[in-house]
Amino acid sequence: MDQPNILEAQKLTKVYEDGLCALDHVSFSVKAGEIFCLLGDNGAGKTTAINLFLGFLNPTEGTPFINGIDVTKDPLAAKQHVAYLSDVVMLYPNFTARQNLDFFARLGGRHNLKRDDYYNALRQVGLQEKAFEQRLKGFSKGMRQKVGLAIAIVKEAPAIILDEPTSGLDPKAANEFLAILHQLRAQGRAILISTHDIFRAKEISDTVGIMSEGKLLAVKTKAELEHENLEKLYLDYIQGKVAA
Amino acid sequence: MLKILLEKELRDIIYSTKFAITFAAAAVLVLLSFYVGIRNYQESIHEYESAKTTNAANIAAQTDWHQIQDRVFRKPQPLEILVNGVTNDVGRTTDMRSSGELNLINSRFSVDPLFAVFRFLDLNFVFVIVFSLFAILFGYDAINGEKEAGTLKLVFSNGVARASFILSKLLGSVLALGVPLLVPLLIGCLMLLGFGIPMSGFEWVRLGLVIVAGLLCFGVFLTLSIMVSAMVSRSSVSFLLALVVWIFSVLIIPKGSVLLASQIASVPSIDAVEIQKRKFTADQGQKWLQASQQWFSSRMSSSASVNDSGFVNAMAAFQDSLQKAREDARAEFYSRLDEDWRNKKDWQERWAFGISRVSPTAVFQIAAMNLAGTDVGMKFRYMQQLSRYRDAFAETIRKKTGSSADYFRIVIKRFSGGQNDQEEKQKSLNPSELPEYVEQPRSLGDVMTASMFDMGLLVVLNALFIGGAFYAFLRFDLR
Hints:
The complex is a heterodimer of chains A (244) and B (479).
Chain A: E1 5-15, E2 21-31, E3 35-39, H1 46-53, E4 61-66, E5 69-70, H2 75-78, E6 82-85, H3 97-107, H4 115-124, H5 141-155, E7 159-163, H6 171-186, E8 190-195, H7 198-204, E9 207-212, E10 215-221, H8 222-225, H9 230-238
Parallel strand pairs in A: 3-8, 3-9, 6-7, 7-8
Antiparallel strand pairs in A: 1-2, 1-4, 4-5, 9-10
Chain B: H1 2-14, H2 17-60, E1 70-73, E2 93-96, E3 104-105, H3 108-111, H4 113-118, H5 123-139, H6 144-149, H7 151-156, H8 162-194, H9 201-231, H10 235-264, H11 270-301, H12 309-356, H13 360-372, H14 378-401, H15 419-426, H16 444-474
Antiparallel strand pairs in B: 1-2, 2-3
């Protein structure tokens, strides 16, 4: 049976006050149990698309939907159905990992979680046990990223949006991180990732959307990419050698 | 949602090392200001009591009510130690006279000039300098700091309303910082009780209001810096802006307002007024001498003898009437000069205070000094009380001597060498026969009237910056 669209962008367009068109009629959807990678260089419009989904920006045209809810009309309700992890996950350094988790879980509507629930989430993302009750001040970026992902997990939202999640992570930490994403996909979450890491995009995603200068130039499924050189394809698209 | 955000805000502040260090520093300074104040008060009271005892002994050593040398001492007030205001600039001792101008001498700063340079550590200093900086340190990155840390996006990726978030920031900061600061203040109040500082119920109310005003001033800086933090996206910029506001508020505006006011409304210097008074007094002295000479000439030419009791009585009556006329003229001239100077000074002060009220710390200082009774009107009020006391003093002297006693006069006495004369000559004065100077406290109504405008202004500034923070944050770019 076909999975429902959890995240859906319908002709999303964003033109800033200075006239810069950051996003130009971009449409795509992410289904439950699917990982969708928005691949593009800096300024391609990936983060703008994410910001529109999270209601940080209002679209000039088009509509972002989360679990069928129009974000522009009811952003608070829509955001109950999405978890977000940015590339800069500092969290609250004076709180322990568990306290950070507790705060964001309650913010996300999970009021009845117990200490063990938080510990399980932290175990799931591979954080060392001794770090559970340590303040985040001394955490490495990889450790903070894991806590951030645990926050996304405990929210149990059907959609997860990740903005450059592996940037700055060492290969081991990045691999661990991607392994967790696979688990979340298996749980039926719809995952939207923005990245400029072609290798990771091909490795993890079910669908890749190639973006450049605010346009979604191509959407390729894993099957379509199986026999393609994604790097070459990507470069061909952004250099205009292949018609969008 | 608000509860969750508020709880987080409280914990985030209280768990921070920044809070531990700044709170400890603020607490130590608050307690130190109370302790220094208490010690100063005890020392001042001791000096006051000693001076009174010495004065009583001096009076008791005198034998002639005509030549009495009495002194009045300003009693230290408990609230003066916490909000010094102008108290250390105003003289504490007055040579009491039945007539003539009363002068205040022996101010604290004239005795200890070192303190005039460095000033005392009082609650006013703690609120104005320490608490306001404390507020800025916690408010300057309240919003943009979260943006820089990436937590703002994370928070708003949930169903959080902007109004709830900014409200939690404002409430949380006020509660997390304001309530802990109350602890050392309350301990300070307990120290006042423990050290046996005599505080009336009215004084406790005034002290409570000083603390409320201080916390309102703290709130102004806190809400202002949160507002600035919601207006600019970089915390380094908001820190710089908040610091500039602080420097202007604490250092530049209060001093600048005095300079500006002196340009707008000029007032003759007190020396210029003194020169006019001295010239008038010298002229009067000359006239007095001429009148006396004329009177003596006219009498000496007549058949009356200086041994004649009628002559002595007539001379005394002449001198009294002459002195009365001289004193009336002096009082009228001095009072006109003083009133004119006072009016000009009042006008200048109004300008200075009006301009300085741009600064929240100046508003607090004005309110606190009015509440503590150490405002710029303190000297004027004290002089008025001294003037009233002088009337009672003069009346006592008049009853004792039949005339005012403390002006230059010619007294003719016959000494027969009899026992009664010897007894009369050596009889000591009884200081308790003099009226006691008792300082009348200002009424609660007066104090409230004088301070309510500035208290209200602090409330308005808080409301203004809270509104500003809301407005700025509703437009804040969360990305």
